[in-house]
Specification:
Number of helices: 11
Low-confidence stretches: none
Helix content: 25-40%
Structural class: alpha/beta
Distance between the termini: 34 Å
Order of helices and strands: HHHHHHHEEEEEEHHEHEHEEEE
Shape: globular
Bound molecules: S-adenosylmethionine
CATH class of the largest domain: Alpha Beta
CATH architecture of the largest domain: 3-Layer(aba) Sandwich
Strand order of the largest sheet: 5-12-11-10-9-8-1-6-7
Number of domains: 2
Largest sheet: 9 strands, mixed
Length: 326
């Protein structure tokens, strides 16, 4: 896909995510050969629209419109290309914990939780949040982080009382740790500011949710190791207590691994004999085959929720809507 096509596709996604300012900027870049030539100086993996716009904001770019960003981008092109080489897309979206919690509830505790691509480790705190779908509640009802999940049951209708949804607390998590190429320390204001910059500027609700999750994480910061998801997995897994069930988690991360490395990751999880919960783009993994239930909109079938490679359902990119199939 050309850089222009990536930005055109991103513009549609920004529209759907209620970020019109980013949609306008993405369209501006997509149709501007001079701006595209600047971005094409960065490595292909770093030309990601979310990353590019966040890097511009981080370096002090005007928030919009494109007619204001364009001269800034051309004047600061060297800085933008250099910063793109230093940064990764690290959006830590706690809302993905909602589908994650549905799968985790099916694993008998106690659990040792190991997340790859953990960013700041906010999804490692899945058991410390509360969840609701209609009248159904699970997780920690007293948590400052409460997440809503719109669930469609396997029988087709909206049935929050469906037996596939958890009730009560999640399995006890007795150990948790994460791996990331560039772990984000929740105690470091600058590092948290990068997470904030990755959010759409109009989405104060997401900023507020992030703030609440970070505040909770600061009370017991999760252990994070700087390593590659494949190369670092076995060493960190070896530290998990033997009397707990090791559960490896990947959400919105494997897309950043080259194709061969994705399969290497899946093979490594198999070698460890670990349980594996994934919430990844639906078409990404050959081992995870998720059917799209009739009536599910394309946006609601963006990701597949799977336990040990067996699909449990499909959902949106952020974990707010879930069509359970098992
Ligand atoms: C989009 S974030 C997702 C964070 C979190 N899992 C979530 O869903 O909120 C992807 C994370 O994966 C990390 N990452 C990318 N490639 C990686 C690799 N090969 N090994 C470990 N981490 C990686 C990035 O640094 C980033 O923090």
């Amino acid at each position: 896909m050309s850089t222009s096509d990536r930005f055109l596709a991103a513009a549609l996604a920004f529209d759907r995510e209620e970020s019109p300012s980013q949609a306008e900027l993405a369209r501006g870049i997509a149709l501007d050969p001079t701006a595209l030539a600047v971005l094409d100086r960065a490595e292909e993996a770093r030309r990601q629209p979310v990353l590019v716009l966040a890097v511009c904001r981080w370096l002090g770019a005007p928030l919009g419109p494109w007619s204001a960003l364009r001269p800034w981008l051309l004047a600061r092109s060297d800085d933008v290309v250099a910063e793109l080489a230093r940064r990764l897309t690290q959006t830590n979206d706690v809302r993905r914990c909602a589908p994650l919690s549905v799968a985790l509830a099916r694993v008998p505790g106690p659990v040792a939780l190991l997340e790859v691509g953990a960013s700041a480790g906010l999804c490692l705190m899945v058991d410390r949040y509360g969840y609701r779908s209609g009248d159904r509640r699970w997780g920690d009802p007293s948590s400052p982080v409460q997440l809503a999940l719109d669930v469609h049951s396997p029988s087709g209708g909206r049935a929050p009382k469906t037996p596939e949804l958890p009730t009560g607390p999640l399995p006890e998590v007795v150990w948790r740790a994460g791996i990331d190429l560039d772990p984000v320390d929740v105690r470091d204001r600058d590092q948290v500011a990068w997470l904030e910059t990755l959010l759409p500027p109009e989405r104060g609700d997401r900023l507020e949710l992030l703030g609440r999750a970070v505040a909770l994480a600061r009370t017991a910061p999760p252990r994070l190791v700087g390593a590659d998801a494949v190369d670092g997995l076995a060493a960190l897994a070896a530290e998990a207590p033997a009397d707990a069930t090791l559960v490896v988690v990947s959400t919105g991360t494997l897309v950043y691994l080259p194709g061969r490395r994705r399969q290497a990751f899946v093979d490594e999880v198999g070698r460890l004999g670990a349980r594996w919960i994934s919430y990844e783009r639906r078409d990404l993994l050959t081992d995870v085959v998720a059917e799209v239930p009739p009536g599910a909109r394309p946006d609601d079938a963006f990701a597949a929720l799977a336990l040990d490679g067996q699909a449990l359902g499909v959902g949106d990119a952020h974990g707010t809507r879930l069509h359970l199939t098992a």
